[in-house]
Amino acid sequence: MSTAIITTDTYKDHQVTPGHPENEGRITAIIEKLKLKKNNLIWKKPKKFDLKIIEDTHGKQFTDDVLSSFPKEGFGFFDQDTPVVSKSKKAALDVVGASIQAIDSIENKEINNSFVVARPPGHHSGTQLGPKGFCLLNTACISLNYLINKYKYKKVALLDVDVHHGDGSQSLLWDKKNIFFASTHLGGGFYPGTGSENEKGKYNNITNIPMEAGTNSEQYLNAYDRVLSKLKSFNPDFVLMSMGVDGLDIDPIGQMKLQPKDFYTITKRTLEITKQCCNGKFVSLLEGGYSYQGLQESSDEHVNALLEF
Length: 309
Ligand SMILES: [Zn+2]
Known about the structure:
The chain is an alpha/beta fold. The protein is built from nine helices and ten strands.
C-alpha cells in the first residue's frame, strides 16, 4: 500500500494564451520533481467514466452547455482569464477521470492515498457561476458526489488550501448537509472576492477563514488548525483537498508568505485526522500555484507526508 500520483496525457493539450500563468509547464515541473522519488510512488492514468458523474454535480444543462462550447479552431474564452482550445475539453474530462481513478484505487485497497497532478483546475467553477478563473469543471465537487453516490458514504469533506477562495465549490456545496467544506484564503477583495467568515452554508457546513496579505507560516497554520478541529468534529468518511500552492511566498500571484515545508505540515496534520476518522482515505487535487519552483518544492513536501502514512 502506498501513494499514487495520477497524471493525464492531455494536460499539455489544454493550450492557453501566451504568458498565461496556468500553463502546461506547471504540471511538467511537478512530474519531473516527483519522478526523482523513483520507486516510492505508483503512477496511474485517468479512468473512463460516465458523463452522468459530471451531471450529478453541475446539472445536465451546464454539462451540455460547457462540453459543446469548445471552439473547433483557435481560442475560445469562458471568461477573459479562461481561454480554451478544442482539446481543452478532453483535458478537463481527464482531470475528472484522474480523480475517479484515485478514489477507486483507494477503495480497491491498491493504495492508501493519492495526489492528482493535472490541469485545468476546478475550484472556481460552479453551475451558477460558470467556468471561470482558469477553471472548467469542478472536479473536487464531482468527486465528492461520486463518493456519496458510488460508495454510499454518509459524510465527506473538502479542504481548500488555495490562496483564492473556492467560490465554485462553495456554491455547489452550499446546501449539502452531508459535506463539510472549508477554505483558507486571502480576503480583502482578492479574487474572487467571496469567502467571508459569515458565509457558513445552509446547514453551517461551510467554514471560511479569510486571511490578510503577508500571512506567514505560523499565522496560516494556526488558522488551518481551526479547520482541522472542525474536520475532526465532522468525522468524515473520506477527505479531499483542493491543493493550491499559490499561497507560497515565491508565487507571482498570491500575496501570502507560505513556505514549501508548510505543505508537509498541512498534509501531515490533515492525515492525522483522517487516520482517526476514515482510515486515512485522502485524495488531493492540484488547483493553483504559478511558480514552477514553488510547485515542485511544495508538491515534494506534500507527497513526503502522503508517503509517511
Ligand atoms: Zn488560486
